[in-house]
Amino acid sequence: MSTNEKSLKQITQLTPEARYDFLVKQVKDHQNLWTLQDSNGCVMLTTDEEDCIPMWPSEEAAALWAVDDWKDCQPLAIPLTEWLERWVPGMQDDELHVAVFPVQDDLGVVIPPFELESRLEPKQQH
Fold first, then answer.
1. pLDDT, tens digit, for every residue of 53-79?
2. Contacts by 65-74 with C-beta closer than 8 Å and gap 24+?
3. pLDDT digits over 83-122, tens only?
4. What is the distance between the alpha carbons of residues 57 and 27, in angstroms, rounded to a whole number?
C-alpha cells in the first residue's frame, strides 16, 4: 500500500519524531529508503552543524521536496540492505548525518546514520 495524497498530507504535518517513527515502519515494511538525486548525485542539506543526506519513506514523500531549487531532482530508491551495507559506513566515514523525512518547513530529526541503522536492522531471532 502506498501513501495516498490525503494521508501523505496528514503525515507531513506530524512532528519530526512521529515522521521518524513513520519512516522506520515504512522502510521495514517496504525494504526501501528514498532520497533525491540530480546529475551531480544525491542532494545534500546543511544545518548549522551538520551536512545531511535527506531520507524519505516513499517516492511520493521524496517527490514533495523536488520543487523550486530542487525541481531537477528525481527520487532515488535505496534498497535497505544496500543502505545498511554501503551507505551507513560511507556516510559515517564522510561524517554525514541523515535528515529523516524533511518537509518544506521542517528539516526533521537529524541523526547519525548508525542511529537510524539501529532501528532498521532486523532483530536477531532467539
1. 999 999 999 999 998 888 999 999 999
2. 65/36, 65/102, 65/103, 65/104, 66/36, 70/36, 70/38, 70/43, 72/38, 72/39, 73/36, 73/37, 73/38, 73/43, 74/36, 74/37, 74/38
3. 999 999 999 999 999 999 999 889 999 999 999 999 998 7
4. 6
3-7, 12-16, 41-45, 108-112: lowest mean pLDDT where? 3-7
> Amino acid identity of 29?
D
Nearest to 83 by CA among 125, 51, 113: 113
